[in-house]
Amino acid sequence: MSGSPTGEVYRIDWLPGTDILHGTCHCGREHSSQDPIEMWEWMLAHPQGHQPQADQPQGTSS
Fold first, then answer.
1. Of 2, 18, 31, 57, which has the highest C-beta tally within 10 A?
2. Has residue 1 got a pLDDT over 80?
3. Is 7's pLDDT higher than 80?
4. Is 12 within 8 Å of 21 (Cβ atoms)?
């Protein structure tokens, strides 16, 4: 990662009572995983692996 700010916001929430992490990319796409490394790789690979939420059918998660 570069040291310069990009203005992009990445959010990962832990779902209490589970081992599930729920992430939201700056483009609005959401993804859930039990593996924190896989979650960050998914987020930082933007836009590979996901498109803005408006372009995806409801209920899908890549």
1. 31
2. no
3. no
4. yes
Assess whether pLDDT exceeds 70 at residue 30: yes
32 φ/ψ angles, rounded to the nearest 5 degrees: -125, 145
Phi, psi torsion values for 55, nearest 5 degrees = -90, -5
Cβ burial, residue 51 (10 Å; 0-12/13-18/19+):
middle
Reduced to 3 states (helix: H, G, I; strand: E, B; else coil), residue 11 is: strand
Q: What is the DSSP string of 21-58?
A: EEEE-TTS-EEEES-HHHHHHHHHTTTTT---GGGS-T
Q: Give how far Cα 53 sits from Cα of 16, 24, 28, 37, 46, Å.
A: 25, 10, 6, 22, 13
